[in-house]
Amino acid sequence: MNLYFACSLTGGRQDEGIYGVIVRHLEGAGHEIPTAHLADPGVMELEKVTAADEIYERDIRWIEGCEALIAEVSTPSHGVGYEIACALRLSKPVLCCYRAGVPVSKMILGNDSPGLIVRRYQSEDEVRKLIDKFLASLG
User: Fold this and answer.
1) What CA–CA distance (Å, rounded) separates 3 from 66?
2) Of all residues in the chain, what percent are helix, strand and coil, respectively (each to 5)?
3) Which site in 11, 17, 85, 112 is 20 to 30 Å from 42, CA atoms measured?
4) Are 5 and 73 in contact (CB under 8 A)?
5) Angle between helices 52-65 and 78-89 (to 10 degrees)
């Protein structure tokens, strides 16, 4: 399955470890993740050399081409919110997961869009199970 993974870049990288866990889990299950590089600790250096308009156009194409979007939303990010909204507008299924105990935007928590699932997790194992359950629900 082609899956778009969204996570914070300029909003902060304090959750980088869990980004790697999620991407490795998805790739290990055989999924295609065009945004896998976002979990890489060196991603900020990679993205610096790419123009903003190129990133926007590339990422929109990737969202359009994905079957679903999985977002880790523990760290607030304008870009991730935008990507979630784009995916929902395109009727793509979206899973937003976040660490228990962190405040999450009410624009995410209060959104009742069809296809949007928002779940909290307490451990790496739990986030992997949430993702598996979400993907299984897609048929």
Assistant:
1) 5
2) 50, 15, 35
3) 85
4) no
5) 40
Q: What is the mean pLDDT of the chain?
A: 92
Residues 39 and 22: their CA atoms lie apart, in Å, by: 9
Q: Could you report the per-residue pLDDT of 46-66, keeping only the tens digit for each?
A: 667 788 899 999 999 999 999
Residue 136 has pLDDT above 80, yes or no: yes
SS3 70: strand
Q: Is 120 helix (H, G, I), strand (E, B) or coil?
A: strand
Instruction: Please report how the helices 16-28 and 124-137 are oriented relative to each other, as an axis angle in degrees rounded to 10.
Output: 50
Q: What is the mean pLDDT of residues 3-18?
A: 84
Tell me how far apart the terminal alpha carbons of the chain are, to the nearest angstrom: 11
Sheet holding 94-99, edge to edge: 3-6, 68-72, 94-99, 116-121
Which residue bears the tokens 């980088």? 16
For residues 33 and 85, what is the distance between their CA atoms, to the nearest angstrom?
19
Residue labelled with tokens 């979007």: 69
Fold exhibited by the domain 3-137 = Rossmann fold (3.40.50)
| Cα gap 135→128, rounded to integer Å | 11
Entry pTM: 0.93
